[in-house]
Write a structure and sequence with these properties.
This protein is an alpha/beta fold and 878 residues long. The chain has 10 helices and 55 strands.
Length: 878
């Protein structure tokens, strides 16, 4: 050994190596540095003669040749100079987590013949990945992945066949590279290196040409396989099961369906199985309970059903288990209490019943316990939390009778950062133990049967930590909030709707400049809104509906992110704020049921390009409907009822293209609370929350509008509600009214309409409420289809010249026909024919059923929960 060291020393001396780096390589590095952008001063150490001592440089201990260039997370960008090729002995090149925006991966990277490690991930390279990288015959590690939140791939590959030339490759990560044109991707998998142990193909837009079975699978060394976030739309890929060494399998967000195969139990080495967000159905395969090496198991958001096997308790290595958003039923097995290593347990949004096992309190490693939206019963006591010293996320709710029964002296051994206890009897008082929680970042105690005043000191302590506080739907009372002068700034959402809070609007909220959601609806707040609300520049949602607020509406025109304003049913006076036209992101504006007095507002579609819901009902707006409104093609709900509006209905209302198609466009409101809106659908005020996006409505009732009903209005085939009652409309009901095929509610009463009722009205198969009373309509009332269910004579009252069913007034033609047929005189015929009556009532059954089904199909009412954004990413994998 001593002789070998001596020979090496002689060789070093012979080569003239003096212990510092090679001069030509140092110069190449300096030229490389000059073409880069270094805003973070990452290269500050690149001074002096010995480049081997520079940050990120590694040299061979004997030859002093540069062999490693590791510039990971350097925040560098710019161009990569080809002088880098002078580093002929480079084995490791790491440029990951940088910002080479708009730069293609240089082709000359394929000339580093000794390269073993190449990491270009998360550095914003763009364009086509050069196939020249296939020349790197010694390469073992290749990472071209992009950021997980980058859903628009920057890199692309039209073929991956050249990857087969990397015969020594062990780690290959192409996650985020666009492979949509790589139709050879699947056949190329079997040509990859037999040494591949890690293969990442997440978010690659892979072509949907995946077979369910393969005759063989060559990747016998595969330990980690990530196929997630590809829209593959097939059943479970059975060929994956050939890789018996697999430890990590990620198949989330792939649109897989069908059953999870029982043969998945053959993957005996599996420690991570992620099937998040697919459409798998049926029960969990029993064989999964044999995978005793599993540490992470995610069934999140599928269509799985059946009961949860008690043998899941055999998976004692589990640290993370998520069954969120499925249809599991039955009880939660007490064998789960054997999972001593469990850190996260998520069985939220299922159909589980029975008691929550008390022994869960013995899972001392648990930091996340998510049990929301099931049908739990019984009591939750301090024994459920007895050893949960690490717990920081607790979410419990039930649609059954679940009661919190905890001693007033109990002090928990944990400090929560997130607490959701909603639809869960926590009250009647704010629990004392809750006041000990000083680190809460998100709090939801909605519908918790609390009847109490707010503990102010504790409440204010939440402001500096919490992104969201929701105490809605309780019986909280008092005016303490009006007495607060200042509070720590930091709150993102405050939701106190549906309580009995009183006093003036809490002025301290003006200092909460981080607020994005403010919902105080359905309380007893009074007085004026302060002008300082204009300070809340991050506000997105403002809901003050159903209070007693008065005075002028303050200027909110500088709140550029505001999307939702609901001031419905207050006592506001004065003019409509012109500043609203500056709110370019606004999509809901409701100032209905106030005392505003003004002409109808005018603005161009360019000013409010996203406006969908405009509610001005029950004020004192006057004048004609401005034609500029017709440019607002996005309108889905327009309610000007109960005002003093004159003039005609503009024919250009036919430009409301959203109502023409009835296509449901998503509401892009980024909110913490629940958006709600009131409309007079079905003749009375109704609150819409989760069904808001399904509502298409025009209500101009109880004004002074004249002229005819424009036939262009009949082009709005998506309309569900059309209410023009209580105006001075004349002329005929347009024959084209049968085109409104989705109409559920139609009210044209108390106008001056004349002529016959169009037969096409019978084409409206979903019509459930109709009112044509008090006009001058004449002739036979149409019959057939859904009209047979509308048998209340009052809907045609006040039209003396109408005849036929259901008003039981015979038509002249019917009388003459019967007289000729039966030889009776007119005095003997006081009603419609027996045959017609029998046919009419026989049709009620099926007609009513069709209408009822249509009504519910159109509305699709359902309740939605409220979840803060702090948990979304966490839950989607858990």
């Amino acid at each position: 050994m001593e002789m070998q060291k001596y020979i090496c020393l002689l060789l070093v001396c012979a080569l003239g190596v003096d212990g510092s780096c090679i001069e030509s390589e140092k110069q190449a590095l300096l030229i490389f540095k000059e073409t880069l952008i270094d805003d973070s001063n990452y290269f500050s150490s690149w001074v002096g003669d010995d480049c081997c001592a520079w940050h990120g440089i590694g040299c061979d201990n004997i030859t002093n040749h540069v062999t490693q260039l590791k510039l990971r997370n350097g925040n560098i960008g710019g161009k990569i100079h080809p002088f880098l090729l002078d580093l002929k002995y480079l084995t490791h090149l790491d440029l990951s987590y940088n910002r080479f925006d708009g730069i293609q991966i240089p082709e000359f990277f394929g000339s580093f013949k000794d390269l073993i490690y190449l990491n270009l991930g998360h550095s914003n390279f763009e364009g086509s990945v050069p196939h020249h990288l296939g020349n790197l015959s010694n390469l073992q590690y290749l990472d071209l992945s992009d950021y997980e939140d980058s859903w628009v791939p920057k890199l692309r590959m039209d073929s991956i066949r050249w990857l087969s030339k990397l015969s020594l490759a062990e780690h290959l990560d192409l996650s985020g590279v666009n492979l949509s044109n790589a139709t050879d991707w699947f056949s190329s998998l079997n040509m990859l290196s037999k040494f591949i142990s890690v293969l990442g193909l997440s978010r690659c837009n892979l072509p949907d040409n995946i077979p369910r079975r393969l005759p063989f699978m060559n990747l016998t060394s595969l330990v980690s396989f990530d196929l997630s976030n590809n829209y593959l739309s097939s059943s479970f890929p059975l060929w994956v099961l050939n890789n018996t060494n697999l430890a990590h399998l990620y198949l989330g967000y792939c649109n897989f369906d069908g059953l999870i195969p029982e043969s998945i139990g053959s993957l005996s080495a599996l420690s991570v199985l992620d099937l998040t967000v697919n459409s798998f159905q049926g029960p969990i395969p029993h064989s999964i309970t044999n995978l005793t090496s599993l540490s992470e198991l995610y069934f999140t958001d599928n269509k799985l059903s059946g009961s949860i096997s008690p043998e899941m308790g055999n998976l004692t290595e589990l640290t993370d288990l998520s069954m969120w958003l499925n249809s599991f039923k039955g009880s939660l097995p007490e064998t789960f209490c054997q999972l001593k290593k469990l850190k996260s347990l998520n069985v939220g949004k299922n159909r589980l019943t029975g008691n929550i096992p008390e022994c869960i309190g013995k899972l001392s490693n648990l930091n996340e316990l998510i049990l929301v939206e099931n049908s739990w019963e019984g009591f939750v006591t301090e024994h459920h939390f007895i050893n949960l010293t690490k717990l920081n996320i607790l979410l419990i709710s039930s649609d059954s009778e679940l009661i919190l029964s905890i001693s007033s002296k109990w002090v928990p051994r944990f400090q929560l950062i997130c607490l959701y206890m909603y639809s869960f009897k926590v009250g009647p008082k704010f629990p004392h133990w809750l006041l000990t929680q000083r680190k809460i970042e998100a709090l939801k105690l909605s519908n918790a049967s609390i009847s109490d005043t707010i503990p102010i000191d504790w409440f204010l302590s939440l402001f500096s930590n919490s992104p969201g506080v929701d105490l809605s739907n309780n019986d909280i009372y008092g005016d303490q909030l009006s007495l607060i002068s200042r509070a720590p700034n930091g709150l993102a959402a405050l939701i106190l709707s549906n309580n009995r809070l009183s006093g003036e609007f809490p002025a301290f909220l003006c200092n909460q400049t981080t607020l994005r959601t403010l919902a105080l609806s359905h309380n007893n707040f009074s007085g004026e809104l302060p002008q300082c609300l204009g300070n809340l520049t991050e506000l997105i949602e403002l809901d003050l509906m159903n209070n007693s607020l008065s005075g002028k509406i303050p200027s909110l025109g500088f709140l550029g992110d505001l999307q939702y304003i609901n001031l419905h049913n207050n006592k506001f006076q004065g003019k409509f704020p012109l500043s609203f036209q500056n709110l370019t992101k606004l999509f809901v504006l409701d100032v209905g049921k106030n005392n505003l007095s003004d002409v109808l507002p005018t603005w161009s579609a360019e000013q409010l390009p996203n406006l969908k819901y405009l509610i001005l009902r029950s004020n004192n707006f006057y004048g004609e409907i401005p034609l500029q409104l017709c440019q607002q093609s996005t309108i889905e709900v327009l309610n000007f009822a109960d005002n003093q509006i004159t003039g005609n209905i503009p024919a250009c209302f036919g430009n409301f293209s959203a109502m023409v198609t009835g296509d449901i466009s998503p509401n892009h409101l980024d909110y913490w609370g629940s958006v709600q809106m009131i409309d007079s659908m079905k003749g009375y005020e109704q609150v819409y929350t989760s069904t808001l996006e399904f509502l298409f409505s025009i209500d101009l009732s109880n004004n002074k509008i004249s002229g005819e009903i424009p036939k262009e209005l009949m082009d709005l085939q998506g309309l569900l509600n059309l209410n023009l009652a209580g105006n001075h409309l004349a002329g005929k009901i347009p024959d084209e009214i049968g085109k409104l095929k989705n109409l559920i509610f139609l009210d044209l009463s108390r106008n001056e309409l004349h002529g016959p009722i169009p037969q096409s009205l019978s084409y409206l198969n979903f019509l459930s409420q109709l009112n044509l009373s008090f006009n001058d309509l004449s002739g036979r009332i149409p019959s057939g289809n859904q009209l047979q269910t509308l048998n209340d004579p009052s809907i045609y009252a006040g039209n003396e010249l109408l005849c036929g069913l259901p008003i039981l007034k015979p038509c002249a033609a019917d009388t003459n026909s019967r007289n000729v047929k039966d030889g009776h005189n007119e005095a003997d015929t006081d009603s419609v024919s027996d045959d017609e009556l029998m046919w009419f009532f026989a049709a009620l059954g099926p007609g009513f059923a069709v209408g009822l089904l249509g009504f519910f199909a159109a509305l699709r009412f359902s309740d939605i929960g409220i979840y803060t954004s702090i948990l979304v990413n966490r839950f989607m994998r858990k």
